[in-house]
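User: I want to check something. If I give you two sequences, will you return the structure for each one separately, not as a complex?

Assistant: Yes, each is folded on its own. Here is the first sequence with its structure:
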Amino acid sequence: MGIKASEGFLDLVAITDTATGLLKTGLAPTCTLYKISDGTSTSLTVAELGATGLYKVTNLTFGTATEYVTVWAVAGAYTIHYPFKLFKVGGGQEADLYTDTQALVTRLTALRAGYLDNLSAGAVALNADMATLLSRLSAARAGYLDELGSINIPADIDTLLIRLSALRAGYLDNLSAGAVALNSDMATILTRLSAARAGYLDNLSAGAVALASVCTEARLAELAAANLPADIDTVLSRLTPTRAGYLDYLLQIYRGTYVANGVVVADAGNNNTTFKTDLAETTNDHYNDMILVFTSGAAVGGQARRITDYDGTTKFVTVGASLAATPTAGDTLQIMPNVVAAAVGGGDATLANQTAILADIGDGSGSTLGSLYGILGNPATAISTDIATLLARLSALRAGYLDNLSGGAVALAADMTTVLARLTALRAGYLDNLSAGAVALAATALSSATWTNARAGYLDNLSAGAVALASVCTSARLTELDAANIPADIDTLTGRLTSGRASNLDRIANHVVTRTWFSTPQETVDLHAVAANETMPSVVLPNITGTIVAVYAGFMFMMKEATAAGVIGVDGAQHIQVKESAAGSYVDAISIVDHMFSIADSTREGGGAVIGDHDIVGQVAAFNKTYNFQWTNGKTHVDHLRFSTVQTFLIVTYY
C-alpha cells in the first residue's frame, strides 16, 4: 500500500489455533519492521485488543519515504493471518492526485461556481426572451423600420412601382372578392399561430440544423451496432452491488497468498546475497522483483529482501540487499508477489511483472485469486487521468473567461428586458398593419382548413422536444463519445468480467479460508530401478461444512538414503497422484523431474518438502473423505532410493 510520510497506519493480525481454527487469546506475538533498502529492522510494540485473539502494533511510524515490510511471528502451533505487509511511504499516485485536486479547487472558486449558476439561469431566460424577440421582430418587420427611418419616399415609390406591377395589381383585384372570408380566416390563423408558437418554429429550425450536423447517420449506426443497452444490462447483471462490495475484500485476501515455499541448499557458492535453494521452478528470472521472506533460520529468520535474479537451472537466488549473514542449509523461505510496488508505481517491480505472475481466477494455475489489475484496471490511474484532462481544459485563462462571461450575461439580460419592454406585442402588431403583402401571403399559404388546432398543437410539442434534444445532444458531447469509444470499452469490460469471474467474486465474499491437513507418518517409501507404483500415506479431511475451490497436494520426509553404489536419483519424469478412496481415479498432483532427489552412493541427507503445481479440486471435492496418495511408476537410476518418515498433506482453500 502507499501512504504519506506523515500518515499513520494500524497493523492488525488475527492469530488462530492451527488445530481448531479458533482465535487464540493471551499470546505474546512479535512484530518487526524492516526497511527494504538496507535491511535494517526495528522491533515494534504489540498489544492484544481485549481478549479477542486480534493483535495490533501500537507504535508503527515511518522515518523516511521508502519501502518497508512488517513481519509477525509467534511461538507454538498457531497460525498468523497475513503475517507480512509491504508499505511504500511517500510519493506515488496519491500525492499527484492530491496536488491536481488542489489546483482544481484553486481555479474553480466558490465565486466562479456562482458565475456558472448565474450563467445557467441567464441562459434559460435569454433563450425565452430571444424567442419572443425573433417572433416579433421578423426580417420583414426589420425592413419596415429601415424604410420608415430613412423616409426615402421617392426611392420607395420607385421600388413599389417595380414590385406592384400591372400583373400583380390584377392579383389584388382577384383577392378583393375573398376579403371577407380572408379576414375571418386570418383571425382564426392568428389565434392558432400565436407569438409563442411562431417562436417555436424559429427554435425548431435552429435546433434541426444543429441536430443534423452532429446526430449523423454514421454515429447512429455505430450506436446501434454497439448494442449498448444489451451490453450495459449484461454488465449490470454481473457486477451487482453485492459483487462490487466483494472487490473490497480482494486485496486483503490476496496479501495472505504466497507464490512458493523453499529451503536453502548447502553450496560452496552461498553468501549473504546469493544462495542455492530447492525451488522447483525451472524458468530463469521467474521470481524476479518478488519478495523473499525467511520463515526460519538462526541468522536470517524473519528477514525480507527483493529478488533481483533467479537461475532456473542452478536454483540460485540473488537478492537486492545483503542479509545479516549467509543463510544456512535447511533455512526455510517463502516467496510473495510484490503487489504494492506494482500497484502504486514504486520499487523495482512493474505492472507487467505483476500481471505475468498472476493467472485468471479458476484457471488451474498456482494463483487462485487471479489478476486484480488485469480484471479491474487501476482506479487511481483512471481518476488521475480524468483530473489531468479537466485541468488542461479548464486552464487559468479559461477560468477567467467564466468571470467575464458571467458579468456579460447579467448585462445582456438587462438589455433584453429593456428591448422587450419597448417592442411590445401591440407595437409588433403595428408592423403587421404596415404590409398589405403579409395579409395576402398568409391567405395564399395558410387557411383555417389546413392549419388546424391539432396541427398547431404539434408545433408546441415539436418545439419543446427539439429544444430539449439540441441542448443535450451537442456536437461536443458526440465528439467526446467518439473519442471515448464507449462501445469498444464496454465490449472489453464484458469480456473481462465473465460470468465465471462474477461467480468467483461471490465465492470470495464468503470469507475464503486456506488450511492444510496432514497424513499420519509412514516409516519408509522405497523407489527401485524397476518402475512400480509405490503406496504413500493417505490424508483424511474432517467432517466440516464448506465449499472447496482449490486443492494442492504435497509430501515431506525426514531423511533420504542411497543404499547402493553410484549416484542415485529419480529416473525420468514421474508424478505423485491422488484419488478419492471410495471412488474416482488417480490424477497428477505433484510433478517429479528427472534426477530429482539425487544423492551420492551409500549416504544419507536431511529431509524436505515438495508442493505440487496441479489444482486437484476436481478429485478432492468434498470434506469427510479419505484421499489416497501413490507415487506412480516410481523408478530410480540405481537400486534403490529410500525416503524415511514420510507424510503427505493437502492444502485446501474453501468457504
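And separately, the second sequence with its own structure:
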Amino acid sequence: MAPARAAGNLVPDPSFEEPMERDRWGHVFAHWSGWIYEGECEFRVSDLARTGGHSLLLVGGNQPKIRAWPRKLVLEPGRYRVVAHLRGLDIGTGRWNQTTEFMFAGVYLPLGRNGTFGWTRLTYVGEVKEPTEGTCPSFGLMAPGRLWVDDVTVEKVGDDTALTPVPVFGAEEAPIAPPGPFGAGAARCPDCGYRAMPAWGSCYACGAALAARPAASGPPVRVIASFEDGNPFDGGVVVSAHATDGAKALRIDRGYASMDGPQDWTGYDWIKVDVHTDADRPLKLYFEVRDTETRDYWTRVNYTTVVPPGSGTLAIPAALYVGEKSRPGRPLNRRGITRIVFSIGADPPAPLFLDRLRLERDTSAEAVRFEGLWAFDLGTRTSPVMEGFTPLDMSCAYTAGRGYGWKNARFWRAFDALQPDPLYQDFICVEAGGLAIDVPNGRYRVIVNMDSPSGYWGEVQRYRRRVLRVEGRELVDTMDLEAFMRRYYRSWDRDDLPAENAFDTYQLPYFAEKDCTVDVDDGQLNVEFEGANWACCVSAVIVFPAERDAQGDAFLDFVRARRRFHFDNAFKRVLHSPSGVPPVPSPEERRRGYIVFARDWMEDVFDNDMPCLLYTSDAADDLLCVDLGGRRIIKKKNKQTKKFRFGNRNFTRQKRNEQS
C-alpha cells in the first residue's frame, strides 16, 4: 500500500519515509524528534510498515521511557483530529504499571495497550489553546517490548467537532501471525527470536531480515593493516623489527598513532593486533575508537589495557561501549567506524611494536552446540552475549511463536556489572515467575546461575531466602550472617601464590550454579524464581536432554574455558619481577634457614624478592636506610654536631655526611 498525505495533514513525513543516519540523540527520521528519558530504549527505522516502506519503531528493554513526536510542528489554537496506527509486540508492564502513552496539547493520556497486537487505528480529538511546540502529538513506550507507529495525521477541525476525553481505538486490522506453516528448515529471527521460514524473507513478528546474519558474511579474518605497503597511521614509524606478517611492523616510541577513515566492523567479534615491547614491566595502552555518532570524549570508546613484556597478541572485543568502563554509554556503532588510536603516553618505559591489525570472527561455539540445547545469556539489551548463547532480556515475553520467554515474571531490574566475563557480568533480578521453554516431553538437565558477580564498585548480593523452582522441584537457599561471612570472607586467612590462577581460585568458587534433572510431561519446561531484590540475579540458563549428557558436559566445559579466556584477557596476569640479588648467607643464617631483610612499610614484599645490601655496618644505630624501587640500600653515617638557635632555645643537631 503506498503512503498518502492527506491534503489537510499538518504532519511532515506522516508515513516515516525519510530516514536518516542516527544522530547523537538517537533520532532516525529527518522530520521526527523525541527523547530517550531513561532506561534501555531506542528509536529504529523499521521495514515493517503499514503503508510505504518504513515505520517508526520504539524498542524498550529495562525500565524504558521514550517518546517520539513530529519535529518543529506548532499548532495554532483550535481543535484537531489526530489519527495514528499502532502495532505492538510483546509489550509488558513497566515501572508504576505503565505501558504505552499518548500526549497532545499538554494532556497526558495513558493508553494501557500492551501484549501483542496488529495495526490498530487510534483517533483523538483535542484542543490547542496556546501555539507552542508542545502541542503536537507524541507517542511513548514505558515498558519492555516494541511499539510501531505509522500513518500519522493531524488535521484542523471545526469548533463544533466533539472532543474525545481519551483516544479511541478501532478494530485490529489483522493479528500478528505467520504467513504460512512452519516446515523443515525453520529458523529463528536473529532479532526477536520468533520462529520463521527463511523463504519468507523477513520476520513476520518484527520485520527483521531473515537472510544470513552479517556475522556469516565476509572472510573470517580481515586484515586492516600489515605495514608492508606503508603506514596507514598518522604517527609511528614502519621498521624491520618484530614483524609477524611479512617483514615490517609499526613502532610507536611515545604518544599515539591514529588511523582515520570509514570502516565497517559488522559481523566480527574481535579486534586483534600482534604486539611486542621490551619494557621490563607492563606497558599501559590506551585504545580509542570513534564512530559516526562520536561528538566528544563520552561518545567515543576509551579502552585501557596493558601489554605484558615480550611478544604476544592483543585481543579487544568488538562489542565495545563508548565512554569508559566505569561509565559506559551506548554500544559502539560497528557499521560506522571513523577513527582508531593506539596511545602509550608521553613517557613510556619502552616503544610498542604493532603488526597485523585485524578483525576476527569467533566461530568456536559452533562446534559444541547440538540439537536440543537451550543456552540463554540473561541481561540488559545492550550487554555483551557469551559465544554460543541466545540473549534474553526483560522484553522477551513467552509466545507460542517464539517458543520460549518470560511467563508471569516480575522483575526488580537488570544489571551489567561490566566484569568478570560476558556470561556472568550481566543478569536480571527476577522476583517471581520465570522462564518457559517449549520442549518435547522427556527428561532434561537444567543448569542455572543466579549468583551475582557483585557490582563494579564492590556491591555484594544479599538476601534472606530465595527459591529456584524447576518443574515444581524446589532448590532453596538462605543467607544469615554466618553464610554471608562464609561466602564473602572465605579467603581472609590465605595468601595468593604465584602459581595460582586467579580465575580458578576466585571466580569458579564464587558462583555456585544450580544443576538438576527433571521430567517434562506437558510440552513445556518451566524455570521459576522467588526472592526479593538481589536474591535471584539470574545470568545464565542452560537446558538440554538428559540423554545427551556427554554433549552437554562438553558444552559446559567450553563455557568454562571461554569464561576463563575472557577473564584472563580483561585482567592481564603479570608476575612480579624479583628485586635484589641472591645473597651469600652467613653460617648463622645458613643454620637458621632464612635471612632477615626489610622493605619500606608502604611497599609489598613478594615471594621472590631478595635483599640488596650494597654496604653494611656493624652497628645498627649507624645505619641510614634508603629504598630505591624495592632495592634496600644501606649507607654508613658519619656524625658531626652543629649548634643552632630556634626562638629563645638552643639545640644541638647531628650533621651526617653520607657515603655510599
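Because they were folded independently, the notes below concern the second chain alone. The chain has five domains: 32-172, 187-211, 221-360, 365-570, 587-659. The longest strand covers residues 631-646.
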